[in-house]
Structure formats: C-alpha cells, structure tokens
Design a protein that fits this description.
By secondary structure, the protein is of the alpha/beta class. 58% of the residues lie in helices and 11% in strands. The strands form three sheets. An eight-stranded mixed β-barrel has the order 8-9-11-12-13-14-15-16, surrounded by four helices. Strands 2-3-1-6-7 form a five-stranded mixed β-sheet, sandwiched between helices. Strands 4-5 form a two-stranded antiparallel ribbon.
Length: 772
C-alpha cells in the first residue's frame, strides 16, 4: 500500500513562516524589521538620492509578504512598510513631505503587484509553470515597479530638483531588480527543493561563488563589462539541475555579492562607471537579464519535469492495479511477450502460474467488499513478498493473479507454486475481528519460443479450472491430458454455433415418478449433441462451453421449443399432456427477457404454463437479481424446481426466500443411502424441511431398489434415476407410461416396492444394526 502524500497546499502551509490566526501581528514585526534593516543597509552602501541604488530588496520582501498572507493581513504589512520607511527617512533628516511621498510609493508598489497577480490568476505568486512565471515577471517585476518608481521619482524631483530622466530609470530598475531577486527566493520557500547529491550541490555553490568573487571583488581593472557573463553557465547549471528553488537562491547570493562590490567600487561595472549612476544601471541591466533568463529556463525545465511526472503517473496507472499496486494484465502481457521473445534468442522456457484466491466471493458477501479489498491487498502483498529474482506477479482479475517466471522448468515452477501457497496460507484478521486463512488454486503452464502469450495464459487458465474442479487449494499443471481437453474445447467452441443452427443438438427425456402412486410426475429434458465427426458429445463437455461463449440463451430456446413440441406429440398418443422440465442457466436469471422467451414459447406451442417446470441450480440463486426473474416466472404460472439441492453454500439461507415448488435432492446424498449412517439423517432432514415450507421433493440418481425403499419410508415425493429409466428419445418416452399416466417401465427395472414391505425391511435392518 502506498504511503500518504502531502498535497502542495499542505506543503505550503507547513513551510509558512506565520502561525494561523496570528498572521497580522507577526507580519508587522517581521516585515517591519526586515524592511528597516534592508533599506538602511542599501542607503548606507549606495546613498541613492538622487541617483538610486543597484538593488532595492525591500520591494521584493514586501511583495513576497503580501503573497504569503491572506488579504485580511495586508493592512499589517502596509503598516509595517509605512512605519519602517517613514521612520528611516525622518531619521536621515528628510522633510516630512518627501518622506511621505517615498512611503506612499513603497506601499503602493507591492500592493499593485499583489492585486494584479491575484486578478490574473496567480494569487500566490507561483513561479511555475512558465505561464505563471511570465505573469509574475510582467505584473510584479515590470508594471508594479513602474507605479512605485513613478511616485518615488516624482517625490525626489519635487524635493531635490533632480532631472526626471536621471532619477526614474535607476529608481525603477532598482525596485524591479529587488522584486526579481528577493521575491522568488522567498516564494521558493513554499516549495520543496529538488533532491540532488551533496557533491553536486557543493560544487555548484563553491564554483559560482568563487567565480563571482573573482569577477566582482578582485582588483580587476583588466575586467570588462562582458566578463560577468562568465556566470551564465552557473545560472544554467542551477536552472537545469536545481530548479526554481536553487536558481532563485543562487541569483540572490550572486546579486548581493555583485551589488555590494560595485557599490564599494570593485568589479567591472565600477571600473567602467560614469557620472550619474550609469555603472549601477549597467549592473542592474546585466542582473535583470541574466536572472530573468535563468528563472524562465528553470520554469521551462519544471514544466517538462512535471509533464514527465504526469506521464509516468499515467503510465503507472495504466499498467498497475489501483487496489494492490501490482502490475496489471496490460503490464503482464507485455512482460510475457518479451520473455517469450528472449526464449527465441537464448532458449529456455517461461512459466506462468495463474493463481485464484479461494472464497473471495464468500468474504465479500459475509463481511462486505471493504473487507474483501483488505483480503485481496494482503494476499497481493504476500505474493509479492514471496517472489525472487526473475519472478513477476500481476493482478489480472478480481481474484486472479499471474506469476511470471523466466528460465523455468516444470520442477522449478512447481516449487514456486508451493512457495506461494505457503506464503499466502497464513491467517489474516479482517474487520470486524474475523480471522480468515487465505488459500490459492493454481494453474501452471510453460511456454517456449513457439508459444504465444495467449496460448500460455489459456493453458494456465485451463489448468486452474481443473484445479478448482478437484476441490480448490490445489496445483494443476497443463500437460498432455489438459492440452487434449483444451484442443477439444476449442473445437467445440468453433463448431457450436453451427450445431445450434442446424439441429445437431437434440433432446432426450428422463421420467420423474411419484413414489407413492407410481404416476408420471414429469419428463426432464436433457440436451445432447450428435457431432458429425466426434459422435455423441455429452452435456458435461459442451454445456460449460455454451455458457462461457454466451450461447446459453440459444441452447435454452432450442431445448424449450423441442420439449414443448414433444409434449404436444405425447398428448396425442397418451391423451394427456405430460409435464416437462427444462434446465435454466444461471446466466439467464439476471435478465427479465427470459420471462418473455418462456411466455412466447408456451403460446406458440399452445401449452399451459402449469405443464412446464424450470429447474435452476441453487448456486445460481445467489444473485439477488435472480429473485426478480424467478418471481416473474412463477407469476406466469410456470413451476420452479431448485436443482442439485445441498451442493451450494447458500442453499439454506435462500430456500425460503424464493418461489420454489420442488426441491431436487442431489444424487450425492442419495447414493450412500443404506451404506452410510449419516446419509439417511441428511436426506430425512432435507425432506422434512422442504415439506415444512410447502414444497415437494424429488430424489435424483436413484439406481437401486434399496435407495427407493429408504426414500419411500422417509416420505420423499418423487424419484428419478436409472432404476426407472435412462434418458430416452422423444419417440420412446410415451412407452414408459400408460394412458392413465402410470409408470410402466421395462423388463430390466424392478417393480415399485410397496410401502408396507419397505417399512418391514427397514425395521428388520435397523434391528440387526442395533443387535451388532
């Protein structure tokens, strides 16, 4: 699970130098002290009147303060400027009117800059992306200093009579440079600097400071005004490698050195100086161009870096699972293709383990999807922690993971599978305080240079299906047997649409007989496929393919219409219309269109809805949408049977909540009757429960007279199985009953036992058991 990241707003708040609720008073003290200190230092170095100074840091300090603070605290900042500026000017002996004019200019200038930035969408003075920096340069570095310099210059001209063209330019450039140099350095405090190695940081700082000192502090009468451009590589270095944060602070350091040295008469600009402060103006121009260019370059690099980060984030999102953080199917497919390509070059094989997390649906239903997500995340973490070099795990479905192993063989892959199962099979505590032990079912397949990623994954999927069919928590390898099954399944998938269209799929019918009376209860219709080349294909081999390929509706419609047509023929032969039972796929129970399909078929055949039984496996009713469809069918008059009862975990909870008419007891409970002591208790309990709910019971798979005797004694209503008849064709079915609807059977089937005979035999057997 990823760690929680702080948002840029949170980082800005954490880096702020003010305390929420106390911004105003703190700002007054800090800004006032900073303003007074910097202005007095500049006045001492430059004695600006009337020529101006090379740098007015107070302009950048005050603008940064306004951009840092909410508008409710701006009055405190302006008050601090007024007190510090007015106090300093009066202390230097300037007239009150002159001092008030300079104070006004120094208050208005940062206010104009902050208001304009807020008006045009850069309220916090952001220096990136590039658009925000350009707004900052235009509004804060150019427009606002024009206003401030105009007020201050006018005051100077009026007070001292100096020419406006000599006063305004250095005044404006000094303020602009103060904003350009100082404000970015302070505003950069809200952002986290790029992490660079200490050695590179040290090298940049030392080299740039040494070169700056050599240029501006040495007695360099041989230097020219072109010499400072030797610093451009260092500005470029800072912009490319250290971003806006590093560029702003390096610019501040170089500017302080250059401005101080020039004011003291050192460096190339002092050597080339001329009356009227032109040396200072040359320095200002150089610094403005160089620093602005460096900041623009840093912003462009920041834009590219942010874009790369977004692209990386999007790529990670596209190739990784959001819940577990593991690679997803797209990533796995690419990695598997690459691994198979390497097999073509260097040989070897690639192992694929398709892992299914057992019982996830049960956890989601019982504990909720939040607990299910925690369960999956924990399993994913354990899988990832159990991997070694050359192994990759990806989440490819709701409860499925694929492990890719390069340079693998059957033994190594099997060892990895067992290692993964051991790592996962440790209890995990889920809310609310429920301990669950995860387990995996794993299908294993090996691929080589001749394999494609689709065939390898398909093989692993087929092996996983076999593993789950054997009882879950198992490992199954995709070998020759499964490969043959997969080829057959593939052939079935290809031939199925044609078979459904040309009548190769036909119906057989197995009778269900009322135990007490011997009367025919119904004929269950079963689908068979007579393949032109493969012969008779049993339903357990093609029905799963039908459902997996989306042909369940077509198969049901085919069987339903054939059943009702046969029912009409039987009515002509027997004089009554026997009931027919048709199986419904679980996939059909989520769509009310099933009701229209059944109603149309009944109307077309002229059959009553009461002569049709629909059989649904109990596991298919776990979806709540199934209840709506079943209720609509029951309202139509169709009778409903829950098939294979007792084999699904949800049976007891859902039995009373659905409109069942019949409960069919699975053959797995009938086969042990008379052989296992617990079998009788289970069957008896299910019969009693069904009768208590007003439902009749049908026993499936009755094959021996003894089983029938037990069922008779326990009060089971209907029996079905080879004891009575195997499934027969539509033409043979009427021969199993007479015109009164009583079962006739065949010479190979025994007579129906009499209830009194059953009771006597069971009594005798129970007495013998107790005597032993």
């Amino acid at each position: 699970m990823g760690s929680i990241q702080r948002t840029p707003r949170a980082r800005a708040s954490a880096a702020s130098w003010v305390t929420p609720g106390r911004e105003g008073p703190v700002a007054f003290v800090v800004v006032g002290a900073g303003y007074l200190t910097t202005t007095q230092l500049v006045l001492w170095l430059n004695e600006p009147a009337p020529g101006g100074s090379g740098l007015w840091p107070a302009a950048g300090l005050t603008l940064a303060a306004l951009l840092f603070l909410p508008t409710r605290s701006w009055g405190w900042v302006l008050a601090a400027i007024a007190v510090a500026e007015l106090g300093g000017d009066l202390a230097h002996g300037h007239p009150l009117g002159t001092s008030l004019g300079w104070t006004l200019g120094n208050c208005v200038e940062p206010l104009v800059g902050a208001v304009l930035l807020r008006r045009f969408g850069n309220a916090r003075g952001a220096l990136a992306p590039l658009r925000q920096l350009l707004l900052f340069l235009l509004l804060a570095v150019l427009v606002a200093p024009v206003v401030g310099a105009s007020i201050g210059s006018a005051t100077t001209v009026i007070s001292f009579g100096a020419p406006i063209l000599e006063v305004w330019p250095p005044y404006f450039v000094g303020d602009a440079l103060g904003v350009l140099i100082v404000a970015p350095a302070l505003l950069a405090l809200r952002t986290r600097p790029r992490r660079r190695r200490l050695g590179e940081t040290t090298a940049l700082v030392l080299a740039s400071l040494l070169v700056t000192a050599a240029i501006f502090l040495a007695d360099g009468s041989w230097w020219t005004t072109s010499t400072p451009y030797l610093l451009i590589p260092f500005f470029t270095w800072a912009a490319l490698r250290f971003g806006l944060h590093g560029t702003a602070w390096m610019s501040l350091a170089i500017t302080v050195i250059a401005n101080t040295a020039t004011a003291a008469g050192y460096g190339p600009f002092a050597a080339a100086g001329a009356p009227g402060g032109h040396a200072v103006t040359l320095l200002q121009t150089y610094l403005a161009i160089t620093v602005a260019s460096a900041l623009i370059l840093a912003a462009m690099v920041s834009d590219l870096s942010d874009r790369e980060q977004v692209e990386r984030a999007l790529h990670h999102q596209a190739t990784h699972d959001h819940l577990t953080g593991l690679p997803n199917r797209a990533y796995l497919s690419t990695a598997l293709d690459a691994a198979l390509t390497r097999c073509a070059v260097v040989g070897g094989r690639v192992g694929v383990l398709l892992c299914d997390v057992d019982r996830l649906k049960r956890i989601n239903d019982s504990l909720g999807h939040a607990a299910g997500d925690l369960y999956l995340a924990e399993v994913a973490s354990r899988l990832g922690g159990a991997l070694r070099r050359g192994e990759v795990v990806a989440r490819v479905g709701g409860d499925e993971f694929i492990v890719l192993i390069e340079d693998a063989d059957a033994g190594a892959v099997d060892a990895v599978a067992r290692r993964l199962m051991a790592a996962v099979n440790v209890p995990v505590l889920l809310p609310p305080n429920k301990e669950v032990t995860p387990s995996l079912s794993i299908g294993v397949a090996l691929g080589d240079a001749d394999s494609s990623s689709e065939t390898v994954i398909s093989g692993a999927d087929h092996a996983l299906y076999e593993a789950k069919k054997r009882g879950r928590g198992r490992i199954e390898h995709f070998g020759d047997r499964l490969r043959s099954q997969l080829r057959e399944r593939t052939q079935i998938e290809e031939d199925l649409p044609q078979a459904l269209g040309n009548g190769d799929i036909f119906c057989v019918h197995q009778p269900e007989i009322e135990i007490a009376t011997g009367a025919l209860f119904s004929f269950e219709t079963l689908a068979r496929w007579q393949h032109a080349e493969r012969g008779l294909i049993p339903p357990d081999r093609f029905v799963p393919v039908v459902e997996a390929t989306g042909h369940a509706d077509r198969l049901f419609s085919t069987v339903l219409h054939q059943s009702l047509a046969s029912q009409g023929l039987w009515a002509e032969q027997l004089g009554f219309r026997p009931a027919v039972a048709v199986n419904v796929s679980a996939l059909q129970l989520g769509d009310l269109e099933l009701v229209d399909t059944v109603g149309s078929a009944l109307a077309l055949a002229g059959a009553s809805s009461g002569s049709l039984w629909l059989e649904v496996t109990e596991t298919a009713t776990a979806d709540t949408a199934a209840l709506t469809v079943l209720s609509a069918l029951h309202d139509l008059g169709v009778r409903l049977a829950i098939d294979d009862f007792g084999t699904g975990w949800s049976s007891m909870a859902r039995l009373a909540g659905h409109p069942w008419d019949v409960v069919k007891l699975d053959r797995a409970f009938i086969a042990p009757l008379g052989q296992e002591p617990d079998a009788e208790h289970l069957v008896r309990a299910m019969i009693v429960m069904a009768h208590a709910l007003g439902m009749r019971t049908v026993a499936e798979g009755v094959e021996t007279p003894l089983q029938l005797e037990w069922l008779t004694e326990m009060g089971c209503d209907v029996a079905q199985g080879y004891l009575f008849s195997r499934p027969v064709s539509a033409s043979e079915a009427p021969r199993l009953v007479d015109t009164n609807g009583l079962w006739i059977g065949s010479s190979s089937t025994p007579d129906r036992p009499r209830p009194e005979h059953v009771r006597t035999r069971l009594s005798d057997e129970q007495g013998q058991t107790s005597s032993r």
